[in-house]
Amino acid sequence: MRLRCAVLDDFQGVAGEFGDWGSIADQVDVVSLREHLVEEDELVAALAPFDIVVTLRERVPFPGSLLRRLPRLRLLVASGMRNSVIDYAAAQAHGVTVCGTESSSAPPVELTWALLLGLARGLVQESTAVRTGGPWQSTVGADLHGRRLGLLGLGKIGSRVAQVGLAFGMRVSAWSQNLTAERAEEVGVDLAPSMADLLATSDFVSVHLALGDRTRGLLGADELALLKPTAYLVNTSRAAVVDQDALLATLHEGRIAGAGVDVFDVEPLPADHPLRTAPRLLATPHLGYVSYANYTTYYGQAVEDIRAFLAGAPVRRLPQGVS
């Protein structure tokens, strides 16, 4: 019997262009689903006929309640090697193998700088004015050279963002709950004595923290109030690290110069969501991972995962260390 595979959240309709899907065409029928599915009932209705599901990032949760209602599902492939919204114990209990793919940290680093530079030089406003006959030069750009870049998190992505900041001649400092002076020195940045100090002294703040119990809501109203009125905040990490209501209030009240955001509590962002019309906000639709190289890896290795599963020898199993 032929198997059926659903590829979730193929918004651009390009999944079929990446990876050697033809190598499994004799055994698997592949269907791309371009519309995001939210409710569990609609997920069950859409996915019930499929043996394999390829899910993108952490956009669609797979709790035990959903996995129990998909008795045909045998293989779940997630992009990346870490996924916090899959119930691995439930997957094992229901006979579902979970596999991942590699993922590059370069694209989110590059997007972080696209947002930061776009904010600093008013690129959207100035470009719109040129194209619509608006004023010629309406903003005065914020310089990077000599300014302080504060990084919340100095892991794989944060450290690469730091290197670019140093290349721009910025003074770079970093803070996280587990960051050591040795690690900061290794990257070539200053260790901020506290998060409050980093927020109060930085001209640009960029968030690069994994989401967990200690980081959820880390930047609330009190923390955002520490930022300079001339400061910019960039978040390409996880939306929930920053209290979304507090961020909205901060932007509407003009208490910071602006924010660049690529991640949201609800994705895709509803058409009537207040962030879509918030002032001083440069927003992108979670493009951090969306690049040619990453899609080649995601979908290329998804096909490899499916081939290996069909051969009875799954690879890149999740959680890591599962044999």
CATH superfamily grouping of the largest domain: NAD(P)-binding Rossmann-like Domain
Q: What's the main sheet like?
A: 7 strands, parallel
Number of helices: 11
Strand content: 5-15%
Characterization of this structure:
The chain is of the alpha/beta class and 323 residues long. The protein has helices at residues 40-47, 64-67, 88-93, 106-120, 123-132, 156-167, 181-187, 195-201, 221-224, 244-252, 292-310, and strands at 3-7, 28-32, 52-55, 75-78, 97-99, 148-152, 171-175, 190-191, 204-207, 232-235, 258-261, 281-283. It is globular and about 65 Å long. The model has no long low-confidence stretch (mean pLDDT 96).
Secondary structure layout:
Layout lengths: L2 E5 L20 E5 L7 H8 L4 E4 L8 H4 L7 E4 L9 H6 L3 E3 L6 H15 L2 H10 L15 E5 L3 H12 L3 E5 L5 H7 L2 E2 L3 H7 L2 E4 L13 H4 L7 E4 L8 H9 L5 E4 L19 E3 L8 H19 L13
Parallel strand pairs: 1-2, 1-3, 3-4, 4-5, 6-7, 6-9, 7-8, 9-10, 10-11, 11-12
Helix pairs in contact: 4-6
Describe this structure in a few short sentences.
The protein is α/β, with parallel strands linked by helices and 323 residues long.
Primary descriptors:
seven-stranded parallel beta sheet, 323 residues, 2 domains, 12 strands, Rossmann fold, alpha/beta, five-stranded parallel beta sheet
